[in-house]
Amino acid sequence: MGDLGNSTVDFHPKKPGMDKEGHEGDFGVTVEELCSLMELRGAEALQKIQENYTDTETLCHRLKTSPADGLSDNPADLEKRRQVFGMNFIPPKKPKTFLQLVWEALQDVTLIILEIAAIISLGLSFYQPPGGEIEACGNVSSGAEDEGEAEAGWIEGAAILLSVFCVVLVTAFNDWSKEKQFRGLQSRIEQEQRFAVVRNGTVIQIPVAEMVVGDIAQIKYGDLLPADGVLIQGNDLKIDESSLTGESDHVSKSIDKDPMLLSGTHVMEGSGKMLVTAVGVNSQTGIIFTLLGAGEVEEEKKDCKKGWHLTNYPDTKCLMKQDEAVAMEMQPLKSAEGGEVEEKEKKKTSVPKKEKSVLQGKLTKLAVQIGKAGLVMSAITVIILMLYFVIETFVIQGRVWLTECTPIYVQYFVKFFIIGVTVLVVAVPEGLPLAVTISLAYSVKKMMKDNNLVRHLDACETMGNATAICSDKTGTLTTNRMTVVQIYVGDQLFPDIPRPDQINPKTLELMTSAIAVNCAYTSKIMAADKEGGLPKQVGNKTECALLGLVLGLKQDYQAVREQIPEEKLYKVYTFNSVRKSMSTVLQMPDGSFRLYSKGASEILLRKCSFILGRDDEARAFRARDKDEMVKKVIEPMACDGLRTICIAYRELPADPMPDWENETDIVSNLTCITVVGIEDPVRPEVPEAIRKCQRAGITVRMVTGDNINTARAIAAKCGIIHPGDDFLCIEGKEFNRRIRNEKGEIEQERIDKIWPKLRVLARSSPTDKHTLVKGIIDSTTAEQRQVVAVTGDGTNDGPALKKADVGFAMGIAGTDVAKEASDIILTDDNFSSIVKAVMWGRNVYDSISKFLQFQLTVNVVAVIVAFTGACITQDSPLKAVQMLWVNLIMDTLASLALATEPPNEALLLRKPYGRNNPLISRTMMKNILGHAVYQLTIIFTLLFVGEKIFDIDSGRNAPLHAPPSEHYTIIFNTFVLMQLFNEINARKIHGERNVFDGIFSNPIFCSIVLGTFAIQIVIVQFGGKPFSCSPLNAEQWLWCLFVGMGELIWGQVISSVPTHQLKCLREAGHGPAPDEIMDEDLADDEDEIDHAERELRRGQILWFRGLNRIQTQMEVVSTFKRSGSFQGAVRRRSSVLSQLHDVTNNSTPSHVVLSTANATGAPGSESLHSVNGTS
């Protein structure tokens, strides 16, 4: 790793206009200087700052920025900074070109076999044996036909090649448009990420990409740092740098000990301001990312310093390994290096991996089963045809194999082989993964409008199976616009905000400064956006409620803040979920200290020893006073659904100097000033949304940090609990007491006794939330495994969001860490958007079932027709090109038509399917077999007596290059029209009668059905030899249409048969069995398509067609699991780079390619190729 210094990757643009000292533009510092500064830590960094710039103020001065007012908003200055120091953007990997995608689609094994067969057929069709011997070679072609027809033998081969070309183009186009859609989505996610910077003295939120060197950024709890910087003011700041160093302990940052802040690290506690010193490819993340070659940065960038050694890190390998995680955060889509291996790597990390999406598991298994069946059928078909031909020609007719006849016999064998491959092509439902992808991509796009920003595609489908939702209270169920409505001060409880003269002036002054100073300075109340509107709350909503109280008492908090700016605060103990309070220490003019504290009333009152009375005198506050206060003030407030906050203070002497690190001693013996009740009204649409959830079989639980009475009151307002029901509302402490045994270990049996009835968990910590989610998911008491969705907004909700089947993060109130751990971001923080996600999820599931029902009917019929036809008449009634048309166009177009049905409210009237529910229900099986019976009856009738019905020539037993017959054209046409009308039947899968219901609300469906019909007319009337079609007259067309429409009437007949009486029907498409899931976890090398690969490893080499395609498309579906944007560190811990340490001296890292699991290798073997950029 030491050799990284010799890397050929250059980072920093050489700029025109360097001055004599090498300073760029007219800034007093160069990119290289800042870059080398950012590599240092702790004391070394401080020393370097002192040597070069004396202090951070001088550094600000050199970068022409003000620590207090930030940069001016002058566009010319910002542009110049971008040119000199670079933009805060890491260039993504280039997407695959259309031609690359075409090339990938061509790799499909079955297509290759078809191409080879077609080329052989083409070559042989030009061979004519010498004159008189044609007769000797058997039934080649009746001499009656004219020369032109005989010479047209090449057309079939050419037509197959052409249709293969169409298949490839359509596949490539689909992949290309999916890629484009995901990139669009990814960039949308990136635009969502904004950061607070100071410009012209005001704090504004700007997109991360617009940050420049010299910006003064405000950092707070929960942020993901978007650039490198130097801390210029901090309170109790702790950073999680594990994404860079691998050290999981939080690192304390302060101006006098370690002021260096790095991009990609997480703020876990505290707040502060930083001067941005490096952005984009020049930040530590960017440098490492560029070393990996993923940024593909242009040649002209100059190295930070030539011998770039990673000396200051405890473990360089670890640095590299972890940093890929961060590096990948900044990248919009998976990088070639990152995407593939990461799936495998993820399973080996400490982060529990999410199971493969349920639907994916079921589909993969189903596809493998169908593929096996298809393979067997096609092999039997080829063998029967060849045996029949050989026996017929050489045994019965007693011919001798003549050398000059060999090409003609080979031509027959090639024809049989093509028929066999065609059966296989039709048997494998490669439209399946396409339907899934289209359905998911369509849903994801539409869900954007419903305020769901989906970060992982499969989350959308998992939501349809959700059986439980654990929701936060604040902001999700409530409006998160908080106001103080009751206040207890000076021994009096005011049910409304009092007038200023009703409160002792000294108490009022103390209360004003306690609130103004001990709230984050980023929280403030701004004027309303429009006339008569409510004032705008910026920052933490609880703090805004308190500031609103100050304004309501006609006091000015801003004046206090101007008098005591943030830099003058002596010490701040910031709010976190363990403390549930925040305290700030001021140094008074006489040198003594005053501490202000605010927090949850029952927690802070325990630390109070005094209370201010009516005349501003502090009197002792004994245990029984506290009990009385709880009964008379706090409980009545909480029962009205109010949050209660206590505000207190304490005077501390200057001598002896207090031990500021001993927080428990400092924040004790407080004097209570006031207790306020804050109202956060329930969102008006929430009770209805919760009712819909309950009707849809989903249990809603509230998990909140609030007091139990407040939580219970809000839960009743929302409809989570109903009077008279049997439910549990408990606090976190009680919950922990009930689920742990004597040794303090959590026991699943104990959790199983609690969770079914639990509806409200109050005063809960993030760990409690995680424990509850894990307990519900791991529970085996219910007949179905529970599928749990969780909402969260705080940094510490990360583990619960990750553990849940679907994690929802709040788009407005959520921290970056929460968003990164989530699967879906609620852009409006609203619970009712979750209900829409459930609807879309169920819709995806139904769309795929509809498509399956349609697809399998086509497959069953086509395979049986081709198979029996070939065995009885030595020729498939449906020709190779016709099969390809049916397969490709009907598959692709039908998946588009059926996968884009919009959802309706009726989806919420049924219970969730459950994880183990089969994809193909008995009703669907009844429909598939019922329609197959109808279609087979019609086709076989036409095949064997069709020529008599229509009074035309028989097309059976035609010679090798015979012209297309009307007979077989009618069969082909009827077949396609039956599929078209069956597509309308497939719109309903639960046995509904009206299949036309809502058909016009889906324009895509209508246009596809009509479009397919139009193309069919063209093929039949003008397809000629390539499509083996002979034009039909009007009467024949009407009969075909009539038989096709019979499908709709037959559909009604099938619906009339009660499913429960058909005991013989079996369901299909079950999810993987529990023991298989265990296998999966053991074989941690298995990739996306585990079942299929397990088949391969067992030695049954299945090269059937769809597998390859399914793999590609499943990969696209899982792009979201891998995608970059801000999804690195937490999700990806030890990603690709854990393997990169093998590549020590590789000077051009862009060529490093890590292969995924070897399909044939032993589990656990990884191979590392150094191939040019292809994985």
TrEMBL record:
It comes from Cyprinus carpio carpio. The chain crosses the membrane at residues 375-396, 416-442, 928-946, 966-984, 1004-1024. It is a multi-pass membrane protein. Catalyzes the hydrolysis of ATP coupled with the transport of calcium. GO terms for cellular component: plasma membrane. SUPFAM superfamilies: Calcium ATPase, transduction domain A, Calcium ATPase, transmembrane domain M, HAD-like, Metal cation-transporting ATPase, ATP-binding domain N. PROSITE patterns: ATPASE_E1_E2. Residues 11-24, 341-353 have a biased composition (Basic and acidic residues). It catalyses: Ca(2+)(in) + ATP + H2O = Ca(2+)(out) + ADP + phosphate + H(+). Its EC number is 7.2.2.10. This is Calcium-transporting ATPase. SMART domains: Cation_ATPase_N (SM00831). One of its GO terms (molecular function) is P-type calcium transporter activity. It is an enzyme of class 7 (translocase). InterPro entries: ATP_Ca_trans_C, ATPase_P-typ_cation-transptr_C, ATPase_P-typ_cation-transptr_N, ATPase_P-typ_cyto_dom_N, ATPase_P-typ_P_site, ATPase_P-typ_TM_dom_sf, ATPase_P-typ_transduc_dom_A_sf, ATPase_P-type_domA. Residues 50-126 form the Cation-transporting P-type ATPase N-terminal domain. GO terms for biological process: regulation of cytosolic calcium ion concentration. It is found in: Cell membrane; Membrane.
